[in-house]
Amino acid sequence: MNPLEQFNEDRQRARETQDPYANLCAFATVDDAGAPQVRTLVLRDVEQRLAVFVNATSPKWQEVANPAVLVFLASLNIQYRLRCTTEAVPDPIVRDSWQLRPETPKRMDWFYFRHGQSSAIASRERLLEEFATLAPPEPLVAPESAKGLFLVPIVIERLDLNQPEGVHDRRRWVRGDGEWVETVLVP
Ligand SMILES: Cc1cc2nc3c(=O)[nH]c(=O)nc-3n(C[C@H](O)[C@H](O)[C@H](O)COP(=O)(O)O)c2cc1C
User: Fold this and answer.
1) How far apart are the first and last CA of the chain?
2) Tens digits of per-residue pLDDT, 96-127?
């Protein structure tokens, strides 16, 4: 089976069991000092492709070219590890889906022009004061710094813990010339 189809199918099964991890991933990058950085992101399906939405004022924006992505579907006991390249989601799509965000995250995206995401601020009180005085444009539209990235998996690894003999099933697929080459791994 095409591993991406399998991934989508597994996520769909997880969604049906209300698995809170079905729509999340751990998104790992390497920072400019060579240190690993990892954070939770919502893993979206956009135009039938995998995508994440981030803000370009975060330092991670400089690190997103070759992320490693981990999805653990707790309800199924299946782990996926993906190595990816990325492509920009076209701006009109980002702007449209940005409109679906709740009010506070929308305003926060504008706040990042004052204080970049993940920058230090004097105190939480200061953060809330400044946030309250923010005057974003009306009507609220997506700022230039709201970005979307399609994930293009080049390696997919699936670890399935549900095996009758107790020995886990672990496989890796590497995308060659348009097709996936499967290897069984020692779990
Ligand atoms: C459940 C959950 C979902 C999240 N989804 C996103 C997301 O889709 N995009 C995003 O930029 N940050 C998201 N975050 C916040 C990130 O984990 C992270 O704290 C933030 O992006 C700052 O990351 P940075 O230190 O790499 O700049 C989410 C956090 C949680 C706990």
Assistant:
1) 20
2) 999 999 999 999 999 999 999 999 999 999 99
Q: Is 26 helix (H, G, I), strand (E, B) or coil?
A: strand
What residue segments make up the domains of the chain, in order of their start?
3-99+144-184
Mean pLDDT, residues 76-94:
98
Report which ligand 1 atom has the smallest distance to the Cα of 29. 26
CATH architecture of 3-99+144-184: Roll (2.30)
Q: Which of 39, 64, 151 to mutate to test the pocket of ligand 1 (most atoms within 8 A of CB)?
A: 39
> With contact defined as beta carbons under 8 Å apart, do 91 and 32 qualify?
no
Q: Are 33 and 26 in contact (CB under 8 A)?
A: no
Cα(108)–Cα(96) distance, integer angstroms: 17
Q: Which residues contact 127 (CB under 8 A, 6 or more apart)?
A: 115, 121
**Ligand 1 binding pocket includes 24 (Cβ within 6 Å):** yes
What integer is the mean pLDDT of 83-91? Answer: 98
The residue to mutate among 40, 46, 54, 117, having the most atoms of ligand 1 within 8 angstroms of its beta carbon, is 40
The span from the CA of 8 to the CA of 45, in Å, is: 9
The stretch 144-149 carries a mean pLDDT of: 98
Strand partners, 69: 27, 82
